[in-house]
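WARN  no MSA supplied for this record, continuing single-sequence
INFO  ligand: flavin mononucleotide
INFO  echoing inputs
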Amino acid sequence: MTILLIGGSPSTTSRTGRLLQHIGVLLEHEGFDIETLHVRDLPADALLHADYKHPEIVRATARVARADAIVFATPVYKAAYSGILKAFIDVLPQFGLKGKVVLPIASGGSLAHTLILDYALRPVLASLYPQQILDSIYAVEEQIVWSEASGLTLDPAIEQRVGDGIAGLQRALRGSKNIEREAVAA
Ligand SMILES: Cc1cc2nc3c(=O)[nH]c(=O)nc-3n(C[C@H](O)[C@H](O)[C@H](O)COP(=O)(O)O)c2cc1C
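INFO  complex generated
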């Protein structure tokens, strides 16, 4: 089963990106095929013009279509998700998340914006009809520490949320696999 990690930060040294990559490594250890798509690598002009026919946008949306589950990662920008993540979501088809399990994650400068995942990102993702949106993971900057020497250090509370998120993905994907098998057998 394939899980697509979508990074929504414009920053190449993104904290959210490091958290996302960490989740990807853990999921790979659990036997999932992991793919990564950073929205910042897509052509900005095509995103700004919502040019969903641009070949690179077509390739990116096809990767979304092929994935069984998607982890959406965003920094908090102005009390919401990043603009580039929304620009990419805007070029997905109306039912672009149908049948997929979704795990939203975000990092922000302040705990005051913990709820952005629930009041801002979750309704947008729900409008694309995913099978399930799992409990989100929100971390503040101090909880995601990275250095060349030590690599990534996560606050224990975030490590716990990450473990819960991975367990949720496993449960949801195994469940949908069983439903597929039952449908074939029937
Ligand atoms: C343009 C901009 C707007 C931001 N707005 C908020 C905000 O409204 N609330 C908040 O908690 N943090 C805000 N931040 C802080 C980022 O969310 C935080 O530094 C985050 O960890 C950055 O993630 P990244 O390294 O993955 O890009 C903002 C940062 C920038 C650059």
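The chain has one domain: 2-185.
INFO  checksum written, moving to next record
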